[in-house]
# Entry
Amino acid sequence: MSYAISLDISRCSGCMSCVLACMDQNDMAESGLSFRHVTKMETGAYPFARISFISLSCFHCTDAPCLYACPKKALFRNDALGVVEINPERCIGCHVCAMVCPFGAPRFFPGEKMQKCNLCIDRIIGGKEPACVRTCPTRALGFGTLTTLSLKKADKAALKILKLSGTE
# Structure
């Protein structure tokens, strides 16, 4: 069973609560870095300009390039949860994982080996949501199995289509 975090871009206000929760959960306050980041996206032109926010972290890709690129096989998939994790004992700090990750998920803090989002695996095992999801005040972030999240997104899309067609 693979778990994931979903994002409803229409709900994200860019408040950065998810980033702060990640920093707190992972004791990263001193570094000022986080496994999660929020990007601002501007679209359109005046008078129809719009700003949206996108909260991102590791996607724990099904076909994760970092898994294949690591020369020491420090990265591995937790098959029970679908989470891409790191064995810090095997990491040599070569940065190859960061070079192949299209999402910038691997982080290298000064004087340390690679670290990355582990989907708050300890919280999941304890029956809780990841810290970023728990903290999101607008509920833009969701958490669940890939199947559950896909069904929720499909239901939302179907409702939107019905509303647009006037057959709601």
